[in-house]
Amino acid sequence: MAAEIATASTVLAAAAPVSPARATAPVRGRHATIALRALRIALALFFGVASGAPKLFAVPAAQETFDQIGAGDWLMYVVGGLEVLGAIALLIPMLSGVSAIAFIGLMTGATVTSVTALGGEFWYTPLVLIVPLVLIARVQRHETVRLVTTARQVVARKRR
């Protein structure tokens, strides 16, 4: 009888829904974890060093592109800053999913801008970058849920 009760309570506990705050990270193999980390590092280097830094340092090629868009230097600095901050966030596991989602939005805007304001030159480059960003956002979704849950708890505590 005691064994049946223990078994029933174990089954009920296993069937109970788990709140997002208590959800644990999915178990990944060592190779998958290393590959994900390498992908995040590679994208962070690309966005931070190869793409964002030239905009922040007003490299003539970056200025030329933003002059063609007609937005001026302010947009170049904003985009460069977002790229560098997003690159840093890609390296922080709890922020990497949110960063990937933000970069997907930025790359969508870059594609539209490339097609409409730059004559379609290299329109496919941002689309190619979206593929690994979607992968990171998908794989890191548990961290994004944890971040949102934590933020909600902090806001709820401040309201009290």
Structure description:
The chain has 160 residues and is mainly alpha-helical. It has one domain (30-159). The protein contains seven helices and no strands. The protein has helices at residues 2-15, 30-56, 60-69, 73-90, 93-116, 124-139, 141-159.
Q: What characteristics describe this protein?
A:
160 residues; single chain; 7 helices; mainly alpha
Give the secondary structure arrangement, pairings included:
Elements: H1 2-15, H2 30-56, H3 60-69, H4 73-90, H5 93-116, H6 124-139, H7 141-159
Helix pairs in contact: 2-4, 4-5, 5-6, 5-7
| Total count of domains | 1
Continuous helix count = 7
Total strand count, please? 0
**CA-based shape:** globular
Helix amount, in percent?
over 70%
Mean pLDDT: 87
User: Tell me about the biggest sheet?
Assistant: none
Rg over C-alpha atoms, rounded to the nearest angstrom: 21 Å
Assembly annotation: single chain
Structural class: mainly alpha
The separation of the N and C termini measures 46 Å
Q: Give unreliable regions as ranges.
A: 1-18
Order of helices and strands: HHHHHHH
Summarize, please.
With 160 residues, the chain is mostly helical. The protein has helices at 2-15, 30-56, 60-69, 73-90, 93-116, 124-139, 141-159. It has one domain (30-159).
